[in-house]
Structures are given as C-alpha cells and as structure tokens.
Prior knowledge:
The protein is of the alpha+beta class and about 290 residues long.
Amino acid sequence: MTPAGQHTLKVGDITITALSDGVQPCDQRLLFPQTPPSLWDQYRPRFPECFTDLEVKGENQTWFNTNIGVFAFHSRGKTVIADTGNGPGILMFGFPVKEELLGDMAAKGVDPAHVDTVFLTHLHGDHVGWNLQKDGGRVRPTFPKAKYSFGKADWEHFNKPDILAGRAGETMHRSVLPLSGFGVLDLIDGERELAPGITAIPSPGHTPGHMSLLISSGNERALLLGDLIGSPMQVTETDQFYNPDTDGPMGRASRKRMLDIAERDGMYVMASHLPKPGWGKLVRFQGRRYWQAL
Ligand SMILES: [Zn+2]
C-alpha cells in the first residue's frame, strides 16, 4: 500500500479517497462517561489533533475535535462510498454542522452521479445525513444512480416504534425512511461483496446492524471500522465503554475482534471519526497496541 497523496490511498488495485463532512466539537464526557481523566492524559500527547479546550457554560472543558469521515472506494469501474455524514441544517452537541461533504467531494473529483453504492456502516445521524437532498422543495437521493446498502438488523432496530418516536426517529424520517419510496434500499443480511474486493461484514454492538468494510486487493488489506472506535484511544483500550453503543458488551467484543484481526493480518485501519484523512496502521510499543496515523 502506497499513499498516492494526502487524501488518496491505494490498496492493491483499489483507490480510496478520504472525504469529510467537517470536524465537529463533541463532548468527551458524554461519549466516554466511565473513562477517568487520568487515562485521557496518556493519550492527549499521542493524538493532540483529537482534542480541543472549550469554554462551555462558563466552564473550561476538554472536548473532542471529531472528524465526520466519509470514504470513497474505486474498484474496477465501480464506486462505493461509506457513510454520508451529518448532512445539512442540524446541530451536533449544540454546534451547527459544517455541511462540507458535497464541496469536499467536488474538490476531490468524486461525482455523486457516479456513485454506484452508498454503504452505511450504521444508521446514526452522523452517518446518513446526505442520503437525501431537497431540490426545489422536493426530496431526492443525493446519489441518483446508487443503491443504499446497510445492515438489515439496523433497519429493523431503528424502525421500532419506540425508536421512531425518539431522537433517532428524526434522523430516520429525514434521511432513511424516504429511501424506501425511491426503491433504492438494499438491506444486507450477513456478509456481502459490494464491489470487487469491497466486502461488508457484520460487526454489531455500536448498533445491532453495524457493519465494517474489508478492502482486499492482491496482498493488501484495509479495514473500515465505522464507529467501533470513538477515539484512537480505544485501539489500545478496547474495553473502554463508548456511550453511543447500543449494546456495550457486544460493541466491546466486536471492537476487540476486528482490531485483533486487523493487527494479525497487517491491515490498515480506518474509522469514521479518526482524524483526517482517517487511516493509519497498528503499531506495538512496549507491548501495547496503538493506532498510528499515516
Ligand atoms: Zn458516528
């Protein structure tokens, strides 16, 4: 694997383009309520770009700088994008979203009209926001020829009446449910090859239908972990509880399993909220595993 440019990576014959819907301030204490400050002290010097000091309601707090990462994969004439960011016009942790994805795609030569598959790691609001767009008051898919592929278990979970009635329901009504009327829904049960060498694999826990993406070409591999990790800290501390996980123990098990596979097979590791461009490798230092940006 040779980096062909800051935002492009080659995995065998597959080209990956790193995209972003912006970098958002996110509340560290809400995301990791059980992680003691002393543990963060070890990781801030390793990943300074992930942290920011903010004054919130008159109090100085450490928050995250969270990249809302999106990836485009080009394989043998097919284009798959993984996730669609926050989308427009909403707040995240009280801050307006940056709405950068479509501009970033234009700047990096990824045309929404040429996307064959929109793969969603899961159905949280920061991963589905640009699925649809308003065009003259009418809603239409942002990626006109694409099918939208994601885990069947997420479709079933987020369609439960109590979920639809809550905050996740707003996301479903705005960005997911209308897809069904356009006939572009593609629900995945088990593993599925989406394009040559690009395979969705179940990694439940963060959400019931959360899926990762294995990129495989020649002798090179990469693994997109989606939200299995909410911070590079969790590459080392896989047991740390991540509050957005629907099922904490299952999330922890998937995180550990996938990272162990990636390390064993020498894969590059990508995740939705790692700092831009969002990919790196796993290194060992004094017996502990760390994520190292490329
Ligand atoms: Zn997320």
